[in-house]
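<instruction>
Derive structure tokens from the sequence
<data>
Labelled lines for chain and fold:
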Amino acid sequence: MELFSQPFIQAVHQTLSSPETMVLGTIPPRKGKPLALVGEIRGRPDVKVFSVSAPYLQVPCPCLLLCSLHAPVLQHH
């Protein structure tokens, strides 16, 4: 699994630390044993985490994408 790969973890850190780069990605929900990299990403002050419930996983949600892509500053809640 890539979450345990040091080259992947370093690439994630480098990408998220780049001020001119915006990332739209997915992380697993909080359940079971916590994953260090996921907890680190969730805890970043420049990250906004959206929770999408099961009914919306079947339908594209351009509203979610537009909100996150055009947000001037992303913050964790």
